[in-house]
From TrEMBL:
Protein name as catalogued: Shikimate kinase
Function of the molecule: Catalyzes the specific phosphorylation of the 3-hydroxyl group of shikimic acid using ATP as a cosubstrate.
Gene behind the chain: aroK
UniProt cofactor(s): Mg(2+)
GO cellular component, one term: cytosol
GO molecular function: ATP binding; magnesium ion binding; shikimate kinase activity
Pathway: Metabolic intermediate biosynthesis; chorismate biosynthesis; chorismate from D-erythrose 4-phosphate and phosphoenolpyruvate: step 5/7
Keyword hit for ATP-binding: yes
Record's keyword annotation contains Transmembrane: no
One Pfam short name: SKI
Residues that hold Mg(2+) according to the record: 14
Family the UniProt entry places it in: Belongs to the shikimate kinase family.
Binding sites annotated in the UniProt record for substrate: 32, 56, 78, 138
Quaternary structure and partners: Monomer.
Length: 164
């Protein structure tokens, strides 16, 4: 089983992916980290050098060509499910879990904005407006996930139980 964790920036995908992988005793794959290692650039540097459209193609290609082990937990970038047929591809190739979180909670968790090119210049008020708008656009994609979980206060044990 491959588990794809999806959701907005700051909802805790990377942390939850690590915790779940530890419980399942399987590898964890963070697709943003795969791109950073492969390109030898941070995501911010990649956006700066080649722009968002190029990043979307690269993350989609990475999603579909990564040599996944049979059992693994995959943390995806926040925008990945909303481009090309990535959401359908994940639904066909694994179990998809949407970690849902309210915009105000996301704002309070997104401290390190510099490393996220889409939000790097925003103060809290601007960020809240941005998240509300983006979530409205992205929710139709995110909610195609097979499992939708309220990410607030979610522990890895509960996540594992819900996957069964
Ligand atoms: C993005 C989310 C980021 C990263 C890039 C774009 C997005 O990943 O892929 O900055 O469009 O929401 P995280 O969700 O891991 O921060």
């Amino acid at each position: 089983m491959k588990v794809f964790l999806i959701g907005f920036m700051g909802c805790g995908k990377s942390t939850k992916a690590k915790q779940l992988a530890a419980r399942l005793e399987c590898p964890v794959i963070d697709l943003d980290a795969v791109i950073v290692a492969q390109e030898e650039k941070t995501i911010a540097e990649y956006f700066e050098a080649y722009g968002e459209a190029s990043f979307r193609e690269l993350e989609s290609r990475t999603l579909k060509t990564y040599p996944y082990p049979d059992i693994c937990v995959v943390a995806t970038g926040g925008g990945l499910p909303c481009f090309f047929d990535n959401m359908e591809w994940m639904n066909e190739n694994g179990k998809t879990v949407y970690l849902h979180m309210e915009p105000s909670m996301l704002v309070s968790r997104l401290h390190n904005r510099q490393k996220r090119p889409l939000i790097k210049d925003f103060d809290d008020e601007q960020l809240l407006a941005f998240i509300e708008k983006k979530l409205a656009e992205r929710d139709p994609f995110y909610t195609k996930a097979q499992l939708i979980i309220n990410a607030f206060d979610l522990d890895a044990e509960t996540l594992e139980e819900r996957l069964e």
